[in-house]
# Entry
Amino acid sequence: MLKRLLPRQESFFQLFQRAADKLLLVATEFSNLLQHLDNQQYYVDLIAKHEEEADEIAHTNFELLHRTFITPFDRHDIHQLTSSLDDIIDLINRIAQRFPFYQLQSVPEEMIKLSQLSMEAANHLTQAIYCLPSLKNSAVIFKHCNAINHVESKAHQEVLAGEKKLFMEEQDFKQFFKLKEIYAHTKLVINRCQDVANMVKGIMLEYS
# Structure
C-alpha cells in the first residue's frame, strides 16, 4: 500500500536513454573504424572515451537504484538492463582495442556489413528503450525488438559467408585467426542486443 502512495523515480528512464544513445554511438564509430582503417587509432580512442562515459552512466544508475525506494519496475530488471547495456558497450570497446596491435590494413566486405548490422540492432534497441516510459508504446517496442531478430538472422548469414571465404582464400594463419575472432565478437554484439531486447519485451509483458 505504501509503495502505491509514493511517486515513481523517473530518472531511471533518462539514464537508460543516455546509455542507449552511447551504445548506438559506439556501434556507429566501430563501423566507421572498419571503413577507415587508415585512421583507426582515432576511432579506437573515441570508442574508449564513450565507453568511459557509459560506465559513468551505469554507475549513476546503480547509485540511484541504491537510494530509491520506489522504482518504475522491478529492481532486478533495472539492474540487469543497466548492466547489459553497459556490457555491450564494453564488448565493442574490447573489439576496437584489438585493432592497433592486430595491425589490420583491410577487412572483408562481410565484416563491414556485419558492423553495419550491429549498428542497426543498436538503433532498434535504442528506439525501444526510448519507448519504455509508457505502456502505451508496447506495440512500437515489440516492433523494434522483433526487428532485431531479423537483423540477427542477416548477421548469421554474413558471418557464414565471411568465414567460408576465410577458409577458402586466407593463407596467412595469423590473419585468419584475427579476422575470425573479430567476426565472432561482432556477431556477439548483435546477440547481446537481442538478449536485451528480449529483456525489454519481458518488462513490458510483466507490466502491461
In short: The chain is about 85% helix and 0% strand. Confidence is low (pLDDT under 50) at residues 1-7. Residues 166 and 173 are 10 Å apart (CA to CA). Helices lie at 2-5, 11-35, 40-67, 75-102, 109-130, 138-169, 173-207.
